[in-house]
Design brief:
This protein is α/β, with parallel strands linked by helices. The protein is built from 16 helices and 25 strands. The strands form five sheets. An eight-stranded mixed sheet has the order 1-25-9-5-6-7-8-2. An eight-stranded mixed sheet has the order 16-15-17-14-12-13-11-23, sandwiched between helices. The structure holds 2-acetamido-2-deoxy-beta-D-glucopyranose (9 copies). One 2-acetamido-2-deoxy-beta-D-glucopyranose (NAG) binds next to loops.
Amino acid sequence: MAQQMKTVAVWFILLLQSITYGERTRDKMYQPIVGAACFRRLNGTHQIGCSSTYSGSVGVLHLVNIEADLDFLLTSPPSPPYAPMIPPHLFTHRNLLRLKEAGPDIISVVLLINRNSDKMTQFSHELNCPNQYSGLLKPNISESATCDASNPPNSWNPWGTGLLHQDFPFPIYYIADVNETQTLVNCFEKFNNFDYESHALRSLCAVEVKSFMSAAVNTEVCMRRTNFINNLGSTKYCDPLEGRSVYATLYPRNSPENLTTEVPRSVNTAEKFILVTTRLDTTSMFDGVGLGALDSLMGFATLTQVAHLLRQLLPPQGSLPDPRRNVLFVAFNGESFDYIGSQRFVYDMENLVFPARSTKSTPISFENIEFMLDIGTLDDITNIKLHTLITTPLAQDFLKKLNNYASSPRYGFNLDIQSDVGIQIPPTSAQSFLRRDTQFPALILNAVPANKYYHSIYDDAVNVGFSYANTSRDYISLIDVSESKNYFNATALQMKVANVSSIVAFALYETLTGLQYTGNKVANPLLADEFLYCFLQSADCRLFKASSYPGSPSGLPLPPMRYISVLGGSQESSGWTYRLFGYLLSQPQPSVAKENCTNLPLHWVAGINGTGECRLTTQSYMDALSPAFLIENYDWRSGKYSTWTESTWSQFSARIFLRPSHVHKITTLTIGIVVLVISFCLIYIINSRSDVLFDDVPASNAAFSRPTAC
Ligand SMILES: *[C@@H]1O[C@H](CO)[C@@H](O)[C@H](O)[C@H]1NC(C)=O
Ligand SMILES: *[C@@H]1O[C@H](CO)[C@@H](O)[C@H](O)[C@H]1NC(C)=O
Ligand SMILES: *[C@@H]1O[C@H](CO)[C@@H](O)[C@H](O)[C@H]1NC(C)=O
Ligand SMILES: *[C@@H]1O[C@H](CO)[C@@H](O)[C@H](O)[C@H]1NC(C)=O
Ligand SMILES: *[C@@H]1O[C@H](CO)[C@@H](O)[C@H](O)[C@H]1NC(C)=O
Ligand SMILES: *[C@@H]1O[C@H](CO)[C@@H](O)[C@H](O)[C@H]1NC(C)=O
Ligand SMILES: *[C@@H]1O[C@H](CO)[C@@H](O)[C@H](O)[C@H]1NC(C)=O
Ligand SMILES: *[C@@H]1O[C@H](CO)[C@@H](O)[C@H](O)[C@H]1NC(C)=O
Ligand SMILES: *[C@@H]1O[C@H](CO)[C@@H](O)[C@H](O)[C@H]1NC(C)=O
């Protein structure tokens, strides 16, 4: 009988509980929100980026339409912490620093929303002086000489806010999808946007963001912790930024190395290279967003097209005036983070380990480099300059060649390239070479800065005005100068890339052959069209298909990620670059059948018709990992090499829910406690009066301990 009573009592408790907690269960309904998180990176001395708290940061949604809305949150927040939803035009340096100063008790999450109505005039998260501390140094001062950070209008990124290099005490989540933004706004309007005095008493629409970063302080601390723990278990707190640079030579190298001996590697001093380089990567504040359309894709497209054009114009190496001359094209990865790729290249050349021994060719050293032509940003092609540290006959001569073609009526490019001599050189890969030796013959092609969205989520196809022509015509063959205007407007992006590529390629042609280029063939703007479509809109594209093995799986219908990432990251863009160099810079071998075209350097590619063709290729990868991670006992604070690492994290997620008010929480808790006490007393009373209420006393009673509460 007592058993029955106990069962009744338990049911009674459950019933009461379900009444009091019922509402809360409904409130707890979560709705996930899709977006991209800002994450943490570390260098030798600092941490930058964002992290949530370990269990996730929660804030009440508040839509910020004008600056006054922020003032309201910061001066009299009725029920903090808040999660302001900020439209891009208010996502400024000043506003974010104010939010940061308010502290995580007031502002716990920041959401950057995408509202189509916003017309922004500028949005760059990079510093005014990109890679400020890793370029050429002023003599005896550990400060970069090439950019004056105290004079932003005269810097390499006048619109830079430097937010990418700030450390934030709250997560920042970017919501690109306008429908997701609408969901947030609706929730805010329905539950939060009225009667602010009673905020503390109401349930409010809140967002929870989980993006906890396991590394903190700086790379030194993180590497020490990682190595220490690694001896015991295998927890990683951070990974060095690491990827692969891609290089290829114009002519196959004929400089085999004797692998049978144990003697140190030696250089073949007869070999001479012209180094033509550019940057492969880009970056932004948010994970997986940011195409770097103008900041580096323009230069990269140009380098690829120059390579392809030279491949088709030049005679065999044997018939050059100097048959030991070659061109080495390199696309450096990780340049956005203190020149990782070029620092490593310089380090490897100094140590005679470039190219790797596995390539079975002799190493290349500085002695082999005749000069370097570095292609930087090409924001405005009517305003390109050739930068050098000092005036040299080489630079003057090359500039003359460039302008010969740029202004020639035969081609009608109608451009004028100016010379710019002095210590203010652009933040490009050449800085790594000049830092080692200011006498290094580096020529840098770079336009006057005009990109208002440098290193941001908005440097995309819209920023460069790209529209895919999709002509399905032959984009591989060179084109006649008269025909090239048939497919595009004179000012189209494709024409800009093709025109600059032609000028650079012709100047290099003249350098190599000693003869002026007098042909009518120019770079094909259709190749630029296909290239830009692949990198800006979809990796499932004609050009990538043509450079892959026939029938291999096509790319995803998204643009490839061009952030360097870490070991085990996607490495998509270097993979595609490798294949592109393999296709565009190789020589067809029509006499080699498919079954005999299996071992590198022979490579079987689909080709423009997808039918398959054998090609003699020259491309290869090289590691883009900063030398700082190779040198034992490297001084992380020295600033000699890039020290960037990326924190590890377990998840990125965001969701909205109704956060119960404090009053609600307290009421719920109080009712819970009261119910608990009542039920204990009830059981105690029933139990102690059981001999009166029921006749027999079961043995199980003994198991009931005496409650102490009543
Ligand atoms: C690390 O980054 C911060 C912020 O950009 C910078 O001030 C500092 O000089 C950098 N430290 C090193 C060692 O590169
Ligand atoms: C720089 O330092 C070196 C030695 O450390 C010294 O010989 C040289 O005069 C210094 N140059 C300047 C411009 O101070
Ligand atoms: C947003 O919602 C509208 C209407 O529900 C729908 O037509 C549209 O495709 C959605 N857009 C995206 C990007 O999901
Ligand atoms: C490589 O070196 C060994 C020993 O020095 C020599 O016997 C051999 O002929 C060399 N091979 C080539 C291809 O030069
Ligand atoms: C590119 O060159 C063509 C002539 O070949 C010229 O008509 C056109 O204006 C040029 N376009 C740009 C953007 O320089
Ligand atoms: C390009 O054109 C082909 C047909 O010629 C079409 O199937 C394809 O969808 C087009 N691609 C784009 C991105 O417009
Ligand atoms: C070329 O430019 C004109 C005006 O600048 C524009 O009306 C036209 O649509 C453009 N044509 C193409 C193919 O983009
Ligand atoms: C492949 O190479 C072998 C040996 O060089 C040759 O005998 C054979 O005929 C080649 N196959 C074809 C299809 O050309
Ligand atoms: C592709 O096919 C077209 C016609 O079908 C042909 O004219 C062209 O030469 C082919 N190109 C290659 C590279 O095989």
